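Fold this sequence, please.
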Amino acid sequence: MHPFGHTFKSIQLQLQALYIPSRPHVTGMATKMHSKLSMETTETRAKVYDILKGFSTAMFVTIGPTGRPESRPMQLARVDEDGDVWFFTGRGGTLAEEVKEESVVLLVFQNDTSAYLSLRGKARVIEDMARIREYWKEPYRVWFPGGPSDSQLALVGVKPRL
């Protein structure tokens, strides 16, 4: 069984524990999503996209070389309308290596208004310099001083499983 399979099986995007006091319509939406698993994927993706726009960071959980979960906070670079979530990382870094070894990951989001969301998905490392330049924002220079032209810079994209 996959390490996330047992523990996180029910997290696969059921949004079961979402609580947003300042946005009660989203809380109700999450309840409906949990109870109507037969909802069309397109509609579900649109709702997840709406929720994801409220987050700026995530705990990115991978499976480390010892088979144990490893997590680290990551700044979101972009959320696509289809729900794909993008992060910057180093090509030879631990995150990139773990994703290449095991692509199933868990993303855990939380913001200041007590909203939280867990998504399981498949990750991939992308070394497309045009896309890196497109997604780049100057505040990322704190982590990547070489900027968007740094040859060691890569993107990690996660496609949530719906």
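Confidence is low (pLDDT under 50) at residues 1-39. The radius of gyration is 16 Å.
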